């Protein structure tokens, strides 16, 4: 049985870790390299770094960050934000990233998923999907959740799997930052629909929410930010509780 993964997420803006609610109202959460080391030592299974700022210097800043993180931690990490070409990915992987996460660029150019999977292998390609419910439908959004698309969550998830994505990072925008729990119904439907791992994101507020994401949502991994950044949940305690609930984790 595959172990379930716990993944702290670090949203990066201008070289700092930030956290918001429903994708807005950002506040500073610390130095990303220091946080990466803390999480690695604390037993996190993987890390995700998402560059959410749009400065022209971003690519250079991100590569520097990737290099520093790679030399500091010994767990896999994924990098996303503004990646739109095979060349972008090549540079990040060469500098130590294990996987990349693509979102808006995948919707605008779905062929990018095929190209990346072909060149680097599916295991490197995470497609992030931000979706929220509109009139009872889960609608995929782009540009940090600002722009709705014509895709619904489940059709797009099926499409990205067929094109070679190795993993889906699903963020419920309705749940993001609310600490009311993950979107377990949508997660369970996704897990049934596709055969690649699903990372649950958006809504973690307490340990029970993680238990529910794995039991009810059938997620393969659970990602969270503020509850870890602001020390509301310790990873060691979380994993012990998951173990107590018969959820297989790496301790």
UniProtKB/TrEMBL annotation:
Reported function: IGPS catalyzes the conversion of PRFAR and glutamine to IGP, AICAR and glutamate. The HisF subunit catalyzes the cyclization activity that produces IGP and AICAR from PRFAR using the ammonia provided by the HisH subunit.
Quaternary structure and interacting proteins, as annotated: Heterodimer of HisH and HisF.
GO terms classed as biological process: L-histidine biosynthetic process
Primary localisation category: cytoplasm
CDD domains for the chain: HisF
Keywords assigned by UniProt, alphabetized: Amino-acid biosynthesis, Cytoplasm, Histidine biosynthesis, Lyase
Pfam families: His_biosynth
Domain of life: Bacteria
Gene behind this protein: hisF
GO CC terms of this entry: cytoplasm
Active site annotation, chain numbering: 11, 130
Protein name: Imidazole glycerol phosphate synthase subunit HisF
MF terms in GO: imidazoleglycerol-phosphate synthase activity; lyase activity
Pathway: Amino-acid biosynthesis; L-histidine biosynthesis; L-histidine from 5-phospho-alpha-D-ribose 1-diphosphate: step 5/9
InterPro entries the UniProt entry points to: Aldolase_TIM, His_biosynth, HisF, IGPS_HisA/HisF, RibuloseP-bd_barrel
E.C. number(s) listed in UniProt: 4.3.2.10
Keyword Cytoplasm recorded: yes
Localization annotation: Cytoplasm
Family (UniProt): Belongs to the HisA/HisF family.
Reactions the enzyme catalyzes: 5-[(5-phospho-1-deoxy-D-ribulos-1-ylimino)methylamino]-1-(5-phospho-beta-D-ribosyl)imidazole-4-carboxamide + L-glutamine = D-erythro-1-(imidazol-4-yl)glycerol 3-phosphate + 5-amino-1-(5-phospho-beta-D-ribosyl)imidazole-4-carboxamide + L-glutamate + H(+)
